[in-house]
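We modelled the chain as a single entity of 385 amino acids. Its sequence is:
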Amino acid sequence: MSLNELRAIERDHVVGNYARMPVEFVRGEGTRLWDDEGNEYLDFLTGISVLNVGHCHPRVVAAIREQAGTLVHTSNLFYTEPGMRLAKRLAERSLGGKTMFSNSGAEAVEGALKLARKHRRGGEIVTVHGAFHGRTYGALSATPQESKQEPFAPLVPGFVAVPPTAEAIAGAVSERTAAVMLEVVRGESGVHPLPADALRAARAACDEHGAVLIFDEIQTGMGRTGSLFAYEQTDVVPDAITLAKSLGGGLPIGALVTSPALADVYQPGDHGSTFAGGPLVAAAANAALDVLDDEALLANVRRLGARLAAGLRELEGVREVRQRGLMVAFDVDGAPELVKRALLEQRLVLNATGPDTVRMLPALIVSDAECDDALARVGASLAGA
């Protein structure tokens, strides 16, 4: 089918909730994509940080093939080894409690919100301005962005949004608070790390008032910032984390991981999902975790992220660069137009998170040469403005 035929199908038969770029990708390998005409692209978006191990990583592909030929689905009424093993690995590698699976980041957030509300019945959820936690009703209610919330009001009650400062967060937490939910780095708003004192204030306030501290690690987790989880680069340990995106090596899976203190809040029947943590996606996730939980790889992520940021700061037209590992953003006039020009003229896949911000989320297996190549393509796109 041609691109024009696909666009006609979309026009007539697909709900129009996405604004797609005029490219059809048909193959991916490592840091590269190919379109239906055979053109090769350098992918610095990776499915919005889903393919941290790169496209079609051999270990992930092998795990999927083997599991698909053995057992794809049974439901959570029965045991399967891949999910149990993954749950154990995630819990032991992070907070030491227990793991609950879902199918996406938004669902992981919903599970975290319900956990907090069961822990403190009827309590408020505190989030910060510029946060993004998902588009299902609870997750959307925790995402204080008017353009996203207003068309779907009324939202779930009991959410409080404050500025991302230590003073504001501490002032919002009380005996009425069920949880504070934060992203260590706010990705969808343009890669804005939360100040260290804000994270500390949230931890202290939750401890004082008996609230749950949740870190949304859906985008920052699985090595993206240069440690397996972004909170490991801080001096704050949350009570629960949410994971998704790159957890499945390209397949859809999410997870809520708790501390020991919250491990048994949920009881049978409190929450569930038909597909969550099934053997196929769990096998892929175990293979991806084998690749990502590697200190040499994570050290390289930190080094290459700094290299990218330094190179961007030298480009004419770039106003500000923000970076944590290989989670990078830069401010520039006309970001959506620049992203489209980079795609169509330079074969570089980027993402605009707003009218003035471009985000880069390359695979964590990216090389020095590919980072330099991406910088050259960005420079050429800026020069062509």
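As a brief sanity check on the tokenised model: The mean pLDDT is 97. The first strand starts at residue 25 and ends at 29.
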